[in-house]
Design goal:
Largest interface: A-B, 64 and 63 residues
Mean pLDDT of chain A: 96
Number of helices of chain A: 6
Oligomer: homodimer
CATH topology of chain A: Alpha/beta knot
Structural class of chain A: alpha/beta
Strand order of the largest sheet of chain A: 3-2-1-6-4-7-5
Helix content of chain A: 25-40%
Number of domains of chain A: 1
């Protein structure tokens, strides 16, 4: 068994990625503080062919050296928009027919693996590293999910949580991409 | 719907975590360069109640400020050992009855979601951020898995990959923990 070379992985060029069919998943970054985390969202959204990232509030926007460093250039392939106010981003998504899911441990959140996906485009909100999703944004969500945890810490790193959630939602559909 | 307070999450204390039943999953870090990534492994292994981390080669060991910063203290809950040579760590795991899985895109790797878990303790190897798993370590693996990807980049961030793989393996068993 040997490692595959980059050419053998059949990855898309940045230009082909932009033109390619995407999975109907949008990630909303509600005041993500760390550029490292923002870069990681780009890299993960690239891998799972997500439609778009919505960068909101204090979330940094490309081009920025520290985002590119972690994104490894995926900040040029994945589409993104910026909203000053996360609530406005979510209201616009809902008007466009998206089902909006907050990733947060709440009184009504469902475990990720038990969540039954509705048959419409999905937007998933990830909150600030310390404060999570803003309460007024949570109120706009159609549902909340949480990643079950059995350790000592409050939560996972937000980049890791995004990887798990986007993997869980996108993996069943990756093979159907043209 | 409101966010849960830390007390409502029923997290374990560090002392209780150490004494608690663990899931039979060991993560092997083969020359992980970034302390941020090492810290993230601790935080993820804590959340999914993994048995142990094996830090190998150039992988930094706690206590270190930069590991603790990302681990948020999970470097005190999760058990770990250090091996100078990753091959020696893997040979010791196999002697102890572990089935050893490399996370790497190889000529024989299986997609994560198709991998059928054997009924024995599992060790999962994650490789260096640039070079992946060393070839001589790959040769010792019982199997390789890969996370299917449909973007422009070679791979996911290793912390994100670890989150996805450990989630995929551990999630079905978390509810059975005493």
């Amino acid at each position: 068994m040997r490692k595959l070379r980059l050419q053998e992985l059949n990855r898309l060029s940045t230009e082909d990625f932009r033109l390619s069919a995407k999975l109907p998943f949008v990630a909303v970054l509600d005041n993500i503080r760390s550029m490292h985390n923002v870069g990681s969202f780009f890299r993960t959204a690239d891998a799972f062919r997500c439609e778009k990232l919505l960068l909101c509030g204090i979330t940094a926007q490309p081009p920025h050296r520290d985002i590119t460093k972690t994104a490894l250039g995926a900040d040029r392939s994945v589409a993104w928009d910026y909203f000053t106010d996360t609530g406005n981003a979510v209201r616009a998504l809902k008007q466009d027919g998206y089902y909006v899911i907050g990733v947060e441990q709440t009184t009504q959140s469902q475990p990720l693996q038990q969540f039954v996906m509705p048959n419409q485009p999905i937007a998933v909100i990830f909150g600030n590293e310390i404060d999570g999703i803003q309460s007024e944004v949570l109120e706009l969500c159609n549902a909340c999910i949480e990643i079950p945890q059995a350790g000592t810490k409050h939560s996972l790193n937000v980049s890791v949580a995004a990887g798990i959630v986007l993997w869980h939602f996108c993996a069943p559909h990756l093979s159907s991409l043209p």
